[in-house]
Amino acid sequence: MTTVAVLGGGIGGLAASYYLCKSPQVTKVIVLESSSRVGGWLWSTRRSDGAVFEHGPRGIRPAGAVGRNTLNMVDDLGLGGEILPVTYSHVASKNRYVYVNRELHRMPSGISGLLRTVPPFSRPLLLSVAMEILVKKGKEDDESIHSFVSRRLGKELADIAVDSLCRGVFAGDCRKLSVRSCFPALFNAEQRRGSLTLGMLLGSGPAPVVPPGPLAQRSVEESWAQWSLSRGVESLPESITEYLQRSGRVQLHREAAVQHISPSASGWTITLEDGVMSADHIISALPAKALSSVLPSSCQPLIQLLQDISTVTVAVVNLEYEGSVLPVEGFGHLVPSSEDRALLGVVYDSVPFPQHNRPDGQTTRLTVMMGGAWFQEAFGAPEAVTEEQLLARATEAVSSHLGVTTAPRWSRVTLQRDCIPQYYQGHYRRVESMRSFIKEKSLSLSLIGSSYDGVSVNDVIFGGRTAAEELLGTV
């Protein structure tokens, strides 16, 4: 193994390159990014007065093997001193709201919250959980998240809590999304233990083994629920980029859109706008549709499978208000599709990460998320919608949901086109078929990124590590 080409300079491509660099077997890594910046959806605005705003993912969860893996990387990159942790006892962890019937309702938490009937629910949540053990195991090899939760925990929980959650995490419709691919732990708990409750208590199957480094150990000792970085999450891809450049084995090309890739005697020939390069192996961190458009016609079955993976567009509106304007303290609120199809939720950024406020004077930072699976229905074609329309809709939501009557002192509208892949029912079969085709044709190609094995930052980073290890052995 001498030259590996990594297509895409988002967090997946950068993570794969970072792990490749750990191995002496690789002499050269070529990263090809079509845009002028690396980091993909990890994108922060740092204002000159010290305020930080996120246009993509914000808090990253430390939990599980994939969470530990990311923290080990953060440690290795020397970013430990920049971590901003939010503990489980923090108000942002304890208070999460849903907006139902034009009112904010705090989601039940803790034993007392589960024992009582808390609006907007009509019965105690513990009752749904207790009854769940008696529900028979499903017979399908996949089903929608809404169907799965309705069957096991009741329709009300599915309609309000799970509908909202899927809009917050995937900007997607829980009636179409696959439980097996979006929430594998729930699916496996039912398959292995016959119950979610027993699955959570006894474990729902094997997980990857990632020993915790010092930072991951600290996250357990201090009981972190999530974390960010003092200069925003974009510090992570920036630090990986610096690491790659210091290694001396990585060529990072920006504004290098791949036109075409074709198998050659030694691996691949990669055609760019201004030339051709060759590689022994390709790790594609491109979105599925982008990869489908550069593959040769001999890969038609793979092209078709890649094109079947849908994505959604999300409008992210960052707002800054003078003073303390929130009527409640918490992480934010989500909105079920039955309440407002256009509006996914509002994150109260100043509560979990006050360090990102401008240092002088009291301000409140909010992020309004809109569209997703409902974008076209709510706003029309993404190319036709204006920033003014999106800003007006976001400020109107803040006013009606949170009672904020003043205008924001600063705002930024970002239209994140095709940013979140949608794992519809049967997604796992599509991904299995893709990898089977690659194996059958002996293509030296690895597929990573949010199109396949999980949309979270942790999942995508771990996918980069997995691809490097499958290629080289443990890194």
The tally of helices reads 18
Number of strands: 19
| Coarse structural class | alpha/beta
The order of strands across the largest sheet is: 7-6-15-16-17-14-18
Describe the structure.
α9 crosses α10 (196-202). Helices cover 36% and strands 23% of the residues. The protein is built from 18 helices and 19 strands. By secondary structure, the protein is of the alpha/beta class.
Quick synopsis:
With 475 residues, this protein is of the alpha/beta class.
List keywords for this structure.
single chain; 475 residues; seven-stranded mixed beta sheet; five-stranded parallel beta sheet; 18 helices
Strand and helix map with partners:
Elements: E1 3-7, H1 11-21, E2 28-32, E3 44-46, E4 52-54, H2 64-76, E5 83-87, H3 91-94, E6 96-100, E7 103-106, H4 110-115, H5 125-132, H6 145-153, H7 155-170, H8 179-182, H9 184-193, H10 196-202, H11 214-221, E8 224-229, H12 235-247, E9 250-253, E10 258-264, E11 267-272, E12 275-279, E13 281-284, H13 288-292, H14 300-307, E14 310-322, E15 332-334, E16 343-347, E17 363-372, H15 375-379, H16 387-402, E18 410-422, H17 427-440, E19 445-447, H18 457-472
Parallel strand pairs: 1-2, 1-13, 2-9, 6-15, 13-19
Antiparallel strand pairs: 3-4, 5-8, 6-7, 10-11, 11-12, 14-17, 14-18, 15-16, 16-17
Helix pairs in contact: 1-12, 1-18, 2-18, 6-7, 9-10, 14-17
